[in-house]
Amino acid sequence: AWQSAVGLLENMTRSEIRCDVVCLGAALAALAAGSEWSRALHMARQMEEASIPPNVVAYGSALKACELSRGWKQALSLLTEMDEKQVKPNVICFNSTISACEKSARWEWALEVFWQMQLRRLTPDVITYSAASSACEKCAEWQWSLYLLDDMLLRHIEPDSYTFASAISACQKASEWLVALCLPRPDTVAVAAAISACEKGQKRRSGLAWRSASALLAELGPRMLRRDVICNNAAFSAFEKAQRWSHALALLETIPTLEMGLLGLSSTLAA
Fold first, then answer.
1. How far apart are CA 60 and CA 53, in angstroms?
2. Which among 90, 187, 194, 247 is most buried, taking Cβ atoms within 10 Å?
3. Per-domain residue ranges of the chain
4. Does 243 have pLDDT greater than 60?
5. For residue 59, what are the CA distances in angstroms to 51, 117, 221?
6. Structure-derived torsion over alpha carbons of residues 109, 110, 114, 116, reported in degrees to the nearest 10
7. Cα 28-163-58 angle, rounded to 5 deg
């Protein structure tokens, strides 16, 4: 725990044992794991005062603390400070900064850091793309989310399930549910996002939306994918909005009582 790490440093100081960058870096990592970004920043300042210049590992730990605490402004400030101190940020530093922006739904800044990373000739990885795509998804910036997915594929970086799900969800939030259906659905998470997009499409009274939701549910079995409560509830909601009570009841009969969510039950009754 970070309290123990800080306690050890204080004991070293009282015993007049000089701390080096390794000791302070380890303490910063503990603070990062505890989301204690303000303490991490304070410790980074203490390193400078003690004539121990923070290295890329120390800055990376401080940036991780900012990410976990949604401190996007502090993360951007630290990234700028690294340039001023002539400490070259690595991919991990940029990923933490992008994730900090993502967690605060600051998609413009997430993309700005993404571009800065490439200007430095650093190669983004799947974490970079997933964080940037998630930032766009939170703000329904579906075109940017699709751009990031396309850029990943062009670079031969294998997207993970959450990258696909973020792109689909971005389309769903922007009411571009037909676009969402054109995207790959490698697992249950992505399929659930696509069904949710259909549910959103049904709000616009599209007769195709509830049929698409039904088809997406049907594809889970042959693909050996688990049908979870999120998939079921999204389908129930689409059937309810289309007033397709028979489909809602048919789905209800296939679900064990313990797995029935409150939303699904209320949607079935409403249909």
1. 14
2. 194
3. 1-104, 124-184, 187-271
4. yes
5. 15, 16, 47
6. 20
7. 15
> What are the φ/ψ torsions at residue 186 (nearest 5 degrees)?
-75, -20
CA dihedral 210, 211, 216, 219 (to 10 degrees): 150
* pTM given for the model: 0.76
Q: What is the pLDDT of residues 83-120, one digit of tens each?
A: 998 999 999 999 999 999 999 999 999 999 999 999 99
Contact yes or no for 76/109 (Cβ under 8 A): yes
